[in-house]
Amino acid sequence: MPAKPKAAGKGRGPAKRKLAEEFPPGEILTDTAKKCWKLGTPVGQGGFGLLYLANENATQAVGAAAPYVIKVEPSDNGPLFTELKFYMRAAKPDLIESWRKSRKLKYLGVPKYCGSGLHDKGGSRYRFMVMDRFGTDLQKKFEESGKKFSHKLVLQLGLRLLDILEYIHEHEYVHADIKASNLLLSYKDPNQVYLVDYGLAYRYSPEGTLKEYKEDPKRCHDGTIEFTSIDAHKGVAPARRGDLEILGYCMIQWLCGRLPWEDNLMDPNYVRDCKIKCRENVEEFMKKCFSTENKPDEMVRFIEEVKSLGYNDKPDYQKLRSILRDGLKAIGAKDDDKLDFSVSVNGAGPSSVKAPKRKKEVEKEESVETDGSPAKKRKAPQKKGVNGVKMGSPKKAAPKMPRAKKAAPTAPSPNKPVAESKPPPAKRGRGRPKKNS
Asked: Residues forming the annotated binding site for ATP?
């Protein structure tokens, strides 16, 4: 009998990670600032960790309307540590607020770091992180909308994400896994969207020193297969242009309902080659996604602008915003800060057509779910959730498939020390860029 294929990310150590013990409601955790947090009931499981409702008032019971959640994992596991590094370096409340004011933004969709620490129980040590509670994720909204968002909504989401990505990039990180299931609506204001899940966040410019372009066959296809960048398909560490390439794929999928390579997500080389062809001929790419009369010209301009970036080039975020705003003007709309998910697209209601299983979902059925590993699994649509995790049940996540990055500009970039070579063959086991501590 043939052996089962490896689950994503299992080839580089994660398989030996321990599972988290479930704590009883009322357990008190003390963070590094000596602040006490009281746990409520667990609301989800992410492979090796648990997510709990929480309250900062240790004297009161934690109710269903608790404003915080706490993620807990065994301390020797890596995923939560990686995410914590990002939050502690780049998501402190004062940093986010200062940026918001300087850019005159109504809000910035980056979750704030609330606290973290270590907790000993039953002879084991656990790491925990406190974060704001969020509402539903956009993947659920996408499914409910018949797998299409309105043109106006997509452009608004794109503008919010450009704000988020510029902030992250200016603080030396790239996210590398932008997608609907990692975009959560605010628990208090459904017109605000936040980018979460920084388990694959990569510090591309530690202390201002940019990483060199280098292809690593062992890390091919890291990320979520349908959205990952061409760079990631080649095993190159994430860069700023990759985040923008991924955003482009997301917006196109939200507009047309399906990317051309979604017919064969089980073959990462096929997906990679399709993306390379689409990059080489953007107009043909658009024809595969849209009818001639409905082709969004701003998407062509957006893809072409991102395509022109070298590996270490700094994106022109304002130009990209202008492109999306031009798209709003072209359809007679304006960015009114209201995210309307109720608008029917071509009369579409909840889709009755099932999309093919993603590779990560197939692998998920064959392995234990993870929550932030080198090949982190992702959230699937939830009936009702807290921070994108289904209430009262384990967190559904599709494995984090390797990312692919947008191909380099037509002309070689001076920032690219190594010429991009022919993509290496795909590997079954997934990896991720080496973490920067």
From this structure: 71
Cα(134)–Cα(436) distance, integer angstroms: 28
Interval 407-420: pLDDT, tens: 444 444 444 444 44
Cα 69 from Cα 214, distance rounded (Å): 38
Which of 11, 76, 12, 7 is closest to 48 using CA atoms?
76
Please state the pTM of the whole predicted model.
0.78
Tokens (6 digits) for 407: 């191909």
CA-based R_g, the chain, Å: 21
Res 432: pLDDT: 52
Annotated binding site: 71
Q: Which amino acid is at 77?
A: N
Domain 134-398: which CATH number of 1.10.510.10, 3.30.830.10, 3.40.190.10, 1.10.10.10: 1.10.510.10
Condensed to tens digits (0 to 9), the pLDDT of residues 76-135 reads 877 788 899 999 999 999 999 999 999 999 999 999 999 999 999 989 999 999 999 999
Domain with CATH 3.30.200.20 in the chain: 10-132
Active-site entry in 132, 137, 163, 177: 177
CATH topology of domain 10-132: Phosphorylase Kinase; domain 1 (3.30.200)
Q: Evaluate whether 154 touches 180 at the Cβ level (below 8 Å).
A: no
Q: Is 177 a catalytic residue?
A: yes
